[in-house]
Structures are given as C-alpha cells and as structure tokens.
Specification:
three-stranded antiparallel beta sheet; GMP Synthetase, Chain A, domain 3; 143 residues; 34% strand; 2 domains; elongated
Length: 143
Amino acid sequence: MPKPIVNKASTTWNGDLFTGSGTTTLETSGAGTFAVNWEARAEESGSATTPEELIASAHATCFTMQFSNNLKENGTPPTTLQTSAEVSFEVGKGITGIALSVTGQVDGISADDFTRLAEAAKADCPVSQALKAVDITLTATLG
C-alpha cells in the first residue's frame, strides 16, 4: 500500500478579520512566506496573496499534470501546456466558481480529442474532485 504524501502550510494571523493581517508559509517546499489580509481577499486583489489565489495555483497545476498524463496515454504527449485558473470569491457567498483555461501544443491530435481529454482531466484531477461544490468551467485551445 502506498504511503500517503503529506504537505504542510501554515498561517499566522494578528488582529481581527477586517484590520488584521498575517502571513502564510509553504512549509513543505520552503517556497516562501506570503502576506495575507482581508483587503486583498475582498476589496482589491494584488496587495497580498489570498486563499483563492493559492487554490487557483493548486488547481492549475493539478489539472495540467492530469491533462499531460491523459495526452501521453492517448499517444500524443504534449510539447507545452499553458494553464490558468481564475477563482471567483464574493463576500457573503464564498467561492462562486473556477474558470480553467488551457492552451496546448500537441502534435498529432485533433481539436476535438484535445478538448475531450482536457474535460476528462478537469473531472479527474484530485483538486477538481476536492472542489466539486463549485462550478468549474474549462476553455481548451489547441495552439
């Protein structure tokens, strides 16, 4: 039986939700510590990271890994896949949707097969599975 892989991140928060702030640290990779605050999440993204930005990164990465494997198993491994994920957050509602967009350079595949395999990757990637409670859309473009 395979041993589960455990990854760790932590957050330190000072103060209340609206006037406080904190940092989140990617501990397993040591990739960095990032500022977090309510303003960035609910009013003006860009001044600090947000849970939604971190989810977007995780989803784009997971989907792309799954899609690259689907393409390889199809006999058409990708040359390049470029994926973005946009996670929408509304105060009082929470995360309201995720829009995935992928453009790929893949030799020997039709646009229809590219889209079919992308849709399968969206359904099968573990992050998509974890986020089933929200609407996830996909735009797939063969470049």
